[in-house]
Amino acid sequence: MLPGEREKLEFQNRLLDWFERARRDFPWRSQSDPYAILIAEKLLQQTAARDVVVQAYEQFLHQYPTPHHLAAANVSDIEEIIKSLGLTYRAKELQAMAQELVAHYGGEVPRDLKELIALPGVGDYSARAVLSFAFGENVPIVDTNVARLLYRLYGIPGPLPANPARKKSLIELAGELIPAGQSRDFNLAILDLCAQICRPTDPTCPDCPIKVYCSYFMREG
Length: 221
Fold this sequence. Notes:
By secondary structure, this protein is mainly alpha-helical. Helix content is 58%, strand content 0%.
């Protein structure tokens, strides 16, 4: 638990220090272009094989470097690039999203949560990820993995919600943890911690940099 500001600061520093040593490297993480980050979030949806996404992502941006290129593409060509990811219906979503960006935003990605969520195929998680990773907004991102970490950290009882990205209480909890001005690195650190340590099964709690604050670790040891 994090009862005070001092503990929260220590928690943030421990996590960010660990992230400097253990961060994962993906091409979309070196991007600042909102469009490129939005494409990455779309391709990563319901896809666990990051190495497969890397290849599709790089090919996709080479073929469609801007929303204007994507808006004018043939859906069959988009499907060919992303077929290795499965869920080829995303090709139509990607094109519809690009067409919306061109028609209503001049080919730019909006910096507004409601406008992002209104784009075809863009949900709460992806919208918040773009705001954090592309625009540096102090917004939390919550998916099933982050929700699991929060449940363990705070000792929240019961099963995880079906759609944690829309769970207001979890969004507020995650938001309280973010250090001002460090949203991007902090959110990435949370995601990497969930992938490498706070896994669904067999979490490696002794290796966790924030274990001293975690109710799950205190209980399970």
